[in-house]
Each structure stands twice: as C-alpha cells, then as structure tokens.
C-alpha cells in the first residue's frame, strides 16, 4: 500500500525529528479539552493531522514505549518468547515489571511488531491504535501502548494465556472444548461486537474469525486485531464502500460482490464462527472431500433440520451437549448466514438468543472412564507371571499325585477354582501373617491415590459404559 510520506510525518511528530516546533495554537486547543470524545480515522484527515498522536489520544491512558524498552520487555524479541505470526507481523510474549515506569503495573504482555514486508502496513497499525486506544470493553483485548520509532511500528497488548479460539478449537492435540465453554465464547464475542455496533460512532469490525478471538485463563473471549476495522455508516447511509479485505470463508457474500460494508457483514462472519463452534470444522478446509471443503455451503442446509443436525455436530463432543441448546444455536447460525442481509438478525438479537444457551442443563452424563497408571501395568504383568508360574506348579503337583507323590504345601498362595467359569484365582494370605511377603502399606496407598487422580504418565483408558 502506498502512503504519502508527508502525511505520516505531519501526524507522528514523535516518530520523526521535527523541522520546526509545532504551532502553539494546536497545543492550546488540545490543552483546553475537558472531556474525551472518540476520534475516528476520518477526523485525522483534517486539522488533527498536524497534531502529535499522543496528544490526539489524550485521556486514553496509552503508554508510548521506546524500542529499547520493548527489547528489554521481550528479551530482545527472543525466539523463546515467540507466540506466533499473523498478517500484521510476529508476536512475542514479554513481561513488564513495576520498575519500568511509574503508573504501569507489573504484568505479562503480548508485543506485536509490524512486518515491513507483510500484507499490512502503517495504516493498519494506526487503525488499531485509534480504535483500541479509545474503546474499552471486557470483550475487547486491551491495548496497553505502542511504539513509533523510526520505521518501527509496535503494539503492546494484555497477554491472553489461552491463545486464540482457532488454536483451542482446531489444534490437533488440544483438549475438546466442552459445550458450555463454546457457548460462553460465542456469547462473549457477540457482546464485543454489540459494543462496537451500538457505539455513538458505530464501528464495523470487518475481520470476525476464530484466529482473532483470544481467550483468557477462564476462556472468556476478547476481540483482537482491529487493523481492518472501519467507521460505520452515519445518518441515512446504509453502508460504507471500501475495497474488499478479510479472510476467505468468513466474508459476507454481498461484501465480496459489491464492496458494500455494513454491520450485517459482521453478523454473517459471526455466523461462520458459530458454525465452527458447532461442528469443530474450519470455515475452509481443503483436506476434506470437495463438497465439504466450504463449511457454510456444506452445513447450512442441515442447520434447519433437527433430524440432520446430529450429522454436523462436532463428534469430539461425544454426545455431551445440550440438544435444545444445539437446535437453538443452529437456528441462529442459519439466520446469521442468510444470503440476504435483511434476513439476518441484529447483533443485539444474537446476544439475547445466546445468553440462556450456556446454562442449558440437558447435557447427558458422560461415559465412565477408568484410568490405570503406567505403574499398575508393571504390577499387572508381575501378577500374570506369578499366575503362570503357579499354574505350572499345579500341573506338576497333579502329575505327582497321579504317581502317588505328595504335593508340596504353598505358604503364600492357595489355589481356588471357580466352578462356574473354570478360572484359577489366587488368594493372598493376610499381610499380618508372618509367613506372608512383606506388605508395604504406603506403596499400596499411593497406588490407590494414583488410580483416583490419574498421573502424567501414559495411561490406558477403558470405556465401560455410561455413568448412572
């Protein structure tokens, strides 16, 4: 993307060495502000272009970091702190201690550095600073600060320990997200969108997808990556016209065809995410059979048929989901994915529909799973060896009896025959008996504790039916 250099120099005085001091008039205007009012990207095309960004965002509590501070926070962007990379650039984990600067508490952070050779650029960086620097909500990721030093463009966010919904839902060896957690994530994401759509100056997020929904330690979702966000239509306008951008499989069809962007475009994209939560499938998966590669095209016809709904529900749930909740969520996704924007519900209606779903209690009880620690395997093998040994001795005794010889007496084990099944069982003498092998009560207590709690060692799982 091409940007006139004079525009960014005039906007970011702190990023460049000024040719002359800024006019005092601009300072007086900013200093006289008594209340904070959100500015938009369109506002930056007029007189605000001559102001420093940090002054324009006065009242937003953003910190302006130096590159040296960010290198200290991330250990010079060490590979061991690398979290991932998106269209904007690489992301590293860092830690801010309470000595870095006054008023900034100690906390882990995620530091996103603009890749100068990537698909996004200075405008997307500026868009994130403008929107997240001014908008605060429990379901929007918190922007702590930024860095604008020479060619470097960096963003510093709160750290989200569970990563993205994409990783949690599609990562090959990740644990299956429970039904209630999926509905909690869907509701939180919808509430974040409702905050944007219902703002005094509406915002269209434009990039709703599983990769941009981050999860904190208790799986509470937050929308992140506002580089493609746009100010919504004002007055009697129904949409804003813009070049088509976004991710394959998520963008609304009317937006792809016309470039007309509206809040209903976000509703469609949210419907795709909701469908991913229901099915456990990606919006586009080229590894699947041809007719199943596009999730919406494959699954939407079955969303409105309760008899077919079970075919598309994520099989990893193993039936552990609310059937009533699944029907309501499927019906909602069906409406969100309508080809006609007017038939889609508003995001507020989406929130009201999802609110009760996370608390539905008609989830069937799961299968009983008995876990055998690895150390039990060794014990089991020893028992099998001992049993085999005793059986051989028994055959020898029987042979001796037939020849009139007396069988030796066994002190430790006595053979008991089950007449019904013909199996040989072994009964140990009391551990208190002086003739019995040494009995270690502590070892057996620890073994029972391991069986109850499970260990981190490899285990065998046996499904022995559903719990009562």
TrEMBL record:
Q: Which UniProt keywords apply?
A: ATP-binding, Cell membrane, Kinase, Membrane, Nucleotide-binding, Plant defense, Serine/threonine-protein kinase, Transferase
Query: Gene3D superfamilies of this UniProt entry?
Result: Phosphorylase Kinase, domain 1, Transferase(Phosphotransferase) domain 1
Q: Where is the composition biased (Basic and acidic residues)?
A: 380-404
Single Gene Ontology BP annotation = defense response
Q: Which CDD domains does the annotation name?
A: STKc_IRAK (cd14066)
The Polar residues compositionally biased stretches are: 447-456
Region: Disordered; residue ranges are 380-468
Its subcellular locations are: Cell membrane
- EC number per UniProt: 2.7.11.1
Q: Does the keyword ATP-binding apply?
A: yes
Q: Name one GO cellular component term.
A: plasma membrane
Instruction: Please provide an example of a Pfam family that matches this protein in its UniProt record.
Output: PK_Tyr_Ser-Thr
For this UniProt entry, the molecular function terms from Gene Ontology, in alphabetical order, are: ATP binding; protein serine/threonine kinase activity
Q: Where is the Protein kinase domain?
A: 77-369
Entries under InterPro entries matching the protein? Kinase-like_dom_sf, Plant_Ser_Thr_Prot_Kinase, Prot_kinase_dom, Ser-Thr/Tyr_kinase_cat_dom, Ser/Thr_kinase_AS
Q: What is this protein called?
A: non-specific serine/threonine protein kinase
Organism name: Juglans regia (English walnut)
């Amino acid at each position: 993307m091409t940007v006139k250099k004079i525009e960014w120099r005039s906007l970011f005085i702190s990023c460049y060495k000024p040719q002359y001091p800024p006019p005092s008039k601009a300072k007086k205007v900013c200093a006289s502000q008594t209340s904070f009012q959100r500015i938009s990207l369109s506002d930056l095309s007029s007189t605000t272009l001559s102001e420093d960004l940090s002054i324009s965002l006065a009242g937003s509590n953003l910190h302006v970091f130096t590159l040296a501070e960010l290198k200290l926070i991330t250990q010079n962007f060490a590979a061991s702190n690398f979290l991932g990379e998106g269209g904007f650039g690489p992301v590293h984990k860092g830690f801010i201690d309470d000595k870095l600067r006054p008023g900034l508490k100690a906390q882990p952070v995620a530091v996103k550095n603009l890749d100068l050779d990537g698909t996004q650029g200075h405008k997307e960086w500026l868009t994130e600073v403008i929107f997240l620097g001014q908008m605060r909500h429990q379901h929007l990721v918190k922007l702590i600060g930024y860095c604008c030093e020479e060619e470097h463009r960096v963003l510093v966010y709160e750290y989200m320990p569970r990563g993205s919904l994409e990783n949690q839902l599609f990562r090959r060896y990740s644990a299956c997200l429970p039904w209630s957690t999926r509905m909690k994530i869907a509701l939180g994401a919808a509430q974040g969108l409702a905050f944007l759509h219902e703002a005094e100056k509406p915002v269209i997020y434009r990039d709703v997808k599983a990769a941009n929904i981050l999860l904190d330690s208790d799986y509470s979702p937050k929308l992140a990556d506002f580089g493609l966000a746009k100010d919504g239509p004002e007055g009697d306008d129904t949409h804003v016209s813009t070049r088509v951008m976004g991710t394959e499989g998520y963008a609304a069809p009317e937006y792809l065809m016309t470039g007309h962007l509206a809040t209903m475009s976000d509703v469609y994209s949210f419907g795709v995410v909701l469908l991913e939560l229901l099915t456990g499938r990606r919006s586009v998966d080229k590894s699947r059979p041809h007719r199943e590669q596009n999730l919406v095209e494959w699954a939407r016809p079955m969303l409105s048929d309760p008899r077919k709904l079970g075919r598309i529900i994520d099989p990893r749930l193993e039936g552990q989901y609310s059937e009533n909740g699944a029907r309501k969520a499927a019906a909602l996704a069906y409406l969100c994915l309508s080809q006609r924007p007017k038939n889609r519900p508003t995001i507020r209606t989406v929130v009201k529909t999802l609110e009760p779903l996370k608390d539905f209690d008609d989830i069937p009880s799961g299968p009983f799973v008995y876990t055998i620690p690895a150390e039990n395997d060794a014990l089991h093998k020893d028992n099998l060896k001992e049993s085999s040994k005793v059986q051989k001795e028994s055959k020898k005794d029987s042979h001796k009896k037939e020849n009139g010889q007396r069988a030796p007496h066994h002190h430790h084990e006595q053979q008991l025959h089950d007449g019904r099944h013909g199996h040989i069982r072994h009964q140990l003498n009391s551990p208190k008996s002086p003739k019995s092998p040494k009995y270690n009560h502590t070892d057996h207590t620890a073994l029972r504790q391991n069986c109850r709690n499970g260990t981190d060692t490899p285990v065998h799982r046996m499904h022995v039916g559903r719990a009562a």
